[in-house]
Amino acid sequence: MKIIVLFLLALFVVEAVSATQRMSAIRPGNACAGIMEIEKNLGSHELADTGPAGVSKYAGKEDGKDATIIYKCEKGILTEQKVVVTASSRDQAYDFANAQKSQLTSRLGEPLHDGLELGIWSRLFLGFKGADLDYLTAVVVWGRATQDVMILVRQTGENLWEISISQGTSKIEYILNS
Q1: How many other CB atoms are found less than 10 A from the CB of residue 20?
Q2: Where are the domains of the chain?
Q3: 42 pLDDT above the threshold of 80
Q4: What pLDDT was estimated at residue 97?
Q5: Distant-in-sequence contacts of 168-171, Cβ < 8 A, 24+ apart
């Protein structure tokens, strides 16, 4: 009986994994040696691994959706983490991104820049400055440092949208456009 209860609890935990949980458990600067075990505990399976100084990829779930989780390591230390979820429509992509933004905001506080909620006056001002509005209206950033979390929504093909939640990613494109 205990085994059945533990199995059902494990299934519930696997389905409930969110960016907030994954980003809290694994952060840039951590040793890469424990990533595989953490991802297995989250219900993911390894797709590819180029070694402790390379890139590891896992297939898993992110808030009930299929996700690819990518880790970049240098000298055994995590430098970048990215969770990528795809959607077949713009509405689905933005609904998922807004749900992730809400969860991350409850943990990290208000974002430094919220392109998903960018008002008309802000758009006009940024456009007047010559900023890339396509980029700035598709990104949410919690800080300018590389270890800060960022959400990016972009169309990658006809009827294919990609939502990436990342830490350790360079914010240079955001900095240049803001």
Answers
A1: 19
A2: 2-177
A3: yes
A4: 96
A5: 168/28, 168/72, 168/78, 168/79, 168/80, 168/81, 169/80, 169/82, 170/146, 171/141, 171/143, 171/144, 171/145, 171/146
